[in-house]
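seq:
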Amino acid sequence: MAGQSLRDKKERLTENWLIPLYFSSAFAWMFWVWEEYHALTHTPPQPTPLFCVAVVITGCSCIGLRRLIPKFRNLNRGERGELRVADVLHDLRGYGYRAFHDLVRDGFNVDHVLVGPGGVFAIETKFRSGTGEITFRNGEGLFVGGFPEEKDSLSQARGNAAEINRLIKENCHIDIWVKAVVVFVGDWKVKNDWQSTDARVFTTDTLGRHITNQQPQLTCREIHLIASHLERSAKS
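struct:
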């Protein structure tokens, strides 16, 4: 499923951090309420020490939550982006393409792999908030809103393409050039300023049109063979 690895990360953050932070604060205040009850009923226990403990634990929990919120925000954005790209790829089924999502490899994952008449595409999804222009300059890389991109999406996409090429070559004995693609999700426009490159950059609005304009490179038999191995890899 598209975005599955991101959902897994959110679940791990929730189980390992969010739930413990929440319950630690809740239990601390429960103990303080209990001691406050003793104080009101003139029993010896005093609530002040537990009140201090509750304040300290709550403060630590707030610090932890403050660190977790940006992580959840980025994971949610990434998941929405991958689902949006998955919808675009799903629309290409009528043109003979098959899409595979979130292929987990050794230490990383490939967001999407598309196989069809126009070849094989390894697609890296990036979500960017805001609006403006993304420039793909020949030999210089990506510039988002006029500033160099912090993360090297092009290298990541090229690495994904090389890994999918190796997977197909080993299992299908087909040596095909897997095309590296970066897709930006958001209210952006891409300006391509390059002459020759082994990677492409699109938005979700232009991705489908580019793929359907590709000249046929694979036969139906090759598409079925590659797709069967990618499906097996995705399930494993």
